[in-house]
Design goal:
The chain is α/β, with parallel strands linked by helices. The protein has two domains: 2-76 and 152-236, 3-Layer(aba) Sandwich (Rossmann fold), CATH 3.40.50; 84-151, no CATH class. Helix content is 38%, strand content 25%. The chain is built from nine helices and ten strands. The strands form two sheets. A six-stranded mixed sheet has the order 6-7-8-3-9-10, with helices on both faces. A four-stranded antiparallel sheet has the order 2-1-4-5. Helix 3 (92-102) runs parallel beside helix 5. The longest helix is centred in the last third of the chain and has 16 residues, at 166-181. The chain is globular. The two termini are 33 Å apart. This is ABC transporter ATP-binding protein. GO terms for molecular function: ATP binding; ATP hydrolysis activity. Pfam families: ABC_tran. Keywords: ATP-binding, Nucleotide-binding, Transport.
């Protein structure tokens, strides 16, 4: 579903934020992308979803090139950034209907999906309020619902659990499991290694723009915790 081939991205003075990154996320995967701050996680994710331009390498989503066929890629992709930037002057329901209009979702489908997810996240009663009045956690919930409204084949999340309360975190993890059981591919970054260990079937560790370890959770941990595997891989690359 997602294939990154030899992707690189350089910023000022030739410093590479991503250096020859290659990985594959298949349908049904929950793929964790972990690393220190500044390791290249967000840079890679933003290139995948078309926010950040790049020249080196290739990124394919459902067989389509992010560079050459961006609209085809966006039709099947949903992206939840680490800091949701929504339209504060709209109400929650206006924003969700706007996103549903972008993806040409029928009235019946959008109403059913909005009700389902708003009820799960317990924000149904607040959807008539302006987004500007929402807390960070509520904005995050609206961003999540907007990402799910077109039933994406690929869900990309950058630190999705930041700002969510424990119950909302549990709900999101359950949604992710359910989506993958139906064939959706999920690619997400996180600093919370315990969450990644329990949630993911595959993991890649990135350091200074390079993938230093990648594989199934069993292959990377070999009977140890993900934290231990991460620290060992990180230490071996010094």
């Amino acid at each position: 579903m997602l294939e990154i081939r030899n992707y690189s991205k350089s910023y000022k003075e030739g410093v590479k934020a991503a250096d020859n990154v290659s990985l594959t996320v298949e349908s049904g995967d929950i793929f964790g992308f972990i690393g220190h701050n500044g390791a290249g996680k967000s840079t890679t994710i933003r290139a995948v979803v078309g926010v950040l331009d790049f020249t080196d390498g290739e990124i394919l989503i459902d067989g389509h090139s992010v560079k050459d066929e961006p609209i085809e890629c966006k039709r099947v992709t949903a992206y939840i950034p680490d800091n949701p930037d929504l339209y504060d002057n709209l109400t929650g329901i206006q924003y969700l209907n706007f996103i549903a209009d972008v993806f040409d979702i029928s009235t019946t489908d959008r109403e059913a999906r909005i009700k389902k997810y708003a009820d799960l996240f317990e924000i149904t009663a607040s959807l008539g309020d302006q987004i500007g009045s929402y807390s960070h956690g509520m904005k995050q919930k609206v961003a999540i619902i907007s990402a799910l409204i077109h039933d994406p084949k690929l869900l990309v999340l950058d630190e999705p659990f930041v700002g969510l309360d424990p119950k909302a975190t549990f709900v999101l993890k359950e949604i992710m499991h359910d989506m993958c059981a139906q064939g959706t591919a999920i690619f997400f970054s996180t600093h919370v290694l315990d969450v990644a260990e329990k949630l993911c079937n595959k993991v890649a560790i990135i350091k200074q723009g390079k993938i230093i370890a990648s594989g199934t959770m069993e292959e990377l941990t070999e009977g140890h915790s993900l934290e231990e595997a991460f620290l060992e891989a990180d230490g071996n690359e010094k």
